[in-house]
Design goal:
The chain is mostly helical and 112 residues long. It has a domain of 70 residues: Winged helix-like DNA-binding domain superfamily/Winged helix DNA-binding domain (Arc Repressor Mutant, subunit A, Orthogonal Bundle). Helices cover 60% and strands 7% of the residues. It contains four helices and two strands; from the N terminus they run H-H-H-E-E-H. It has a two-stranded antiparallel sheet.
C-alpha cells in the first residue's frame, strides 16, 4: 500500500517539474513572440532526454491553457499576465466607505 502513495508522490513531482519547464520554455522566447509546441518539445528534451515523447506533457500544457497561466496566440503559446491595478492610487479607508454608504442612503430617502 505504501508503494502506491510513493508512486503518486513521484508522479505529482514529475508533473510539477514538467509544468515548470513548460512555463520556462515559453518565458525564455525572445521578443515575447511566444513558443511553438516544437520549441517546447526541444526545451523539454534538453532538460530530460525522451520526455517530450511522453503524452503527459501535452495534458499539462492543456491544463496550463485551461487554468489561464498560458494563452494561445496564433500557433504560439504565451504567458498570460493578469491585469492587476498598479496600486498607486490612495486606498479608501473603512470610515470613508461607511460615510459614503450613509450619504447614499440619505440621498435615496430625500428623493422619496
Amino acid at each position: 500500500m505504501g508503494s502506491s502513495k510513493d508512486d503518486k508522490a513521484n508522479q505529482s513531482k514529475e508533473k510539477a517539474k514538467v509544468r515548470r519547464w513548460i512555463l520556462k520554455a515559453v518565458e525564455d522566447v525572445e521578443g515575447n513572440k511566444g513558443a511553438t509546441a516544437h520549441h517546447i518539445q526541444k526545451f523539454l528534451d534538453s532538460k530530460e532526454d525522451g520526455i517530450s515523447s511522453k503524452p503527459e506533457w501535452k495534458l499539462i500544457l492543456k491544463k496550463l491553457l485551461d487554468s489561464g497561466h498560458l494563452m494561445k496566440n496564433g500557433g504560439r503559446y504565451v504567458i498570460h499576465k493578469s491585469r492587476k491595478t498598479s496600486g498607486k492610487g490612495p486606498k479608501k479607508s473603512a470610515a470613508f466607505k461607511a460615510k459614503k454608504k450613509v450619504t447614499k442612503k440619505q440621498n435615496i430617502s430625500v428623493k422619496k
